[in-house]
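$ run holo --ligand "S-adenosylmethionine" --emit tokens
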Amino acid sequence: MQIRSAIPTITVKSMGPPTCWPLSPALLRPPQRLFQRRGFQDNLTKQWFRRSLMVSPAGFIFATCQQGAETALKFEILRESPNLRFAYSRPGFVTFKHADDSPFPDDFQIRSVFARVLGVSLGKSLSANMTERAAGFWRHLEGRTVEGLHVFPRDRSEPGHRGYEPGLTHESMASETILRSAENCPLSLRLDQSQQSVSSLRPPDPVNGPLIADAIIVDSQEWWIGLHRARRPISSWPGGFFPKINLPDRIVSRVFFKMHESLVWAGFPLEPGQTVAEIGCSPGGASQALLAAGLKVVGIDPAEVDPLISENPNFRHIRKRSKDVSRREFNGVDWLTCDINLPPSYTLDTVESVVMHSKVRIRGLILTLKLIDWSLAAEIPAFVERVRRWGYSRIRVRQLHHNRQEVCLVAR
Ligand SMILES: C[S@@+](CC[C@H](N)C(=O)[O-])C[C@H]1O[C@@H](n2cnc3c(N)ncnc32)[C@H](O)[C@@H]1O
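-- output --
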């Protein structure tokens, strides 16, 4: 298990007066329903209960998301987990608690389309002085064993607004340096012991991935303290932000990053030489990422494609609308992506007319569903159901770091 061995297990040592909350009987009650639902054994519940007595139990969970997606996120979490209640929110940052105030285990996780990072919330460290804020952060983690640190900001604007792109900032990186230099920072997470902003494209351990301490910069003087277990590639990236990659000399469009992120997240068994059809390929950012992955690309779009792409021998442009393309063109196509600037129902109609054709065998789909109106987020389960009826069984939806007001659906 690569990541676990790279980040040694440590226990956060107490460096000052304990900051435990008063432990009310309600807070000490383990979330029985959660364990029962997941089929946990009774002794595991007891172990968790014993551990939770030593530290402040987490009474809340937090999630970060794109600015503008908060309502969709709240709706989704409360629909999937009716025993939760919304607690507090700022743009790009939302917290929830159990309706009966029972605590969450440190590695509590629920699937979410709109959460970039979701974990338990241990409160906030508030101080005008950065060094004090950092010391306060680590005090909240006393008694817990953490194996990594992620420091990241909440989004400060909607993506694309005045050129804003979500991601790590100079402020978050400077804050990380202060946190890793704090006197009460665990030894193995100190600056000299570990790399800053450890991100990896390698798949972490899907069961036991390392327990990560999250420092969420909600405001410049307000850092929230969270915990999550990094079980998947995205949860091992600070803030859920796609790690920096080696770039070609020129990028055709920012969709290059979106497709690159989609491919990593989808985890499809792509093999060089396979063919992918891309509906809505102009100007060619996504095709550039697909070509870089060693695939042959059939690009379908009535609009022009950048010469950097159209002149690539592995690219073929069919300059038509999808409905005007003969289904024969999809013979021998392995994968299909679609990113057209129209509502999801139109995208799904377009893709359905290809994949349901008797001579076409598409192994997997990567679809961008534009939420032209945020209320369309409520229809995501219906979109998934529709794709399932086409014969795909493994379907996931997520608002990726590089998605705008849209989500990515992958299916195999
Ligand atoms: C968001 S852009 C695609 C960006 C592109 N994937 C890239 O990587 O640069 C949407 C494109 O969808 C195309 N489009 C819209 N309806 C289409 C259809 N029915 N068939 C093919 N292309 C379509 C538009 O011409 C436009 O170029």
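-- notes --
The domain at 255-411 is CATH 3.40.50.150 (Rossmann fold).
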